[in-house]
Design a protein that fits this description.
mainly alpha; 3 helices; elongated
Length: about 150
C-alpha cells in the first residue's frame, strides 16, 4: 500500500474517528430527545435528567475544540523549529568551530596576559603591608605609655 494513502487512512481511523464519532452520537442523541419531547413520548423530568448528563459532554466538547488550537500551534512551532534548524545547521557548525578556536586561543594567551597584573598586584600588596606596619594605632601607643 502507498505510504501516503496508509498515513491518511491511519489519520482518519486513529485521530479523526475517535473524536468525530462520539461528537456525532451526542448530536444525534440530542436531536432524538428533542423529537421525543415534541412527540410527547417523554416527560420533562426524564429530559431534565438526560440533558443534565449530556450537558457535561456539551460543555466539554467546546473545551476540547478550544484545546485543539494550542496543539496545532505547538505542532506548527515544532515543525518550524525543525525546518529552521535544518537551514541554520551549517552556520551553527561554523560558529561552533570559531568559538572553539577563540576559546583555545584565549586559554593559551590568558596566563601570559595576566602575569604582569599578578606581579603588580603582589608588589602593591607588599607595599600596602609595609605601609600598614609603619602605622600604629593610637590604642597601642597608649598601652605602651601606661
Amino acid at each position: 500500500m502507498d505510504p501516503i494513502r496508509k498515513h491518511r487512512r491511519e489519520f482518519w481511523l486513529r485521530i479523526v474517528a475517535p473524536i468525530a464519532i462520539p461528537a456525532l452520537a451526542l448530536i444525534v442523541l440530542a436531536v432524538v430527545l428533542i423529537v421525543a419531547v415534541a412527540a410527547g413520548s417523554m416527560i420533562s423530568k426524564q429530559i431534565t435528567v438526560t440533558m443534565s448528563m449530556l450537558a457535561s459532554a456539551f460543555i466539554l466538547l467546546p473545551m476540547v475544540l478550544l484545546c485543539i488550537i494550542p496543539y496545532v500551534l505547538a505542532a506548527v512551532m515544532a515543525a518550524g523549529a525543525g525546518m529552521a534548524y535544518a537551514k541554520v545547521q551549517i552556520p551553527l557548525r561554523f560558529v561552533r568551530r570559531i568559538t572553539a578556536q577563540i576559546a583555545q586561543k584565549t586559554h593559551s594567551i590568558a596566563p601570559r596576559t595576566v602575569q604582569p597584573l599578578i606581579a603588580m598586584n603582589a608588589r602593591i600588596a607588599r607595599l600596602e603591608s609595609t605601609a600598614r606596619g609603619w602605622q600604629t594605632p593610637e590604642s597601642d601607643l597608649k598601652k605602651g605609655q601606661s
